[in-house]
Amino acid sequence: MVGDGYNEALLHKTILVGDSGVGKTSLLVQFDQGKFIPGSFSATVGIGFTVMLLGDSGVGKTCFLLQFKDGAFLSGTFIATVGIDFRNKVVAVDGVKVKLQIWDTAGQERFRSVTHAYYRDAQALLLLYDITSKMSFDNIRAWLTEIHEYAQKDVVIMLLGNKADVSSERAVRTEDGASLAREYGVPFMETSAKTGMNVELAFLAIAKELKQRAVQPLDEPRFQIHEYIESQKKKSSCCAFS
Ligand SMILES: Nc1nc2c(ncn2[C@@H]2O[C@H](COP(=O)(O)OP(=O)(O)OP(=O)(O)O)[C@@H](O)[C@H]2O)c(=O)[nH]1
Question: Which domains can be identified in the chain, with CATH numbers?
Answer without folding.
Answer: 47-241 (3.40.50.300)
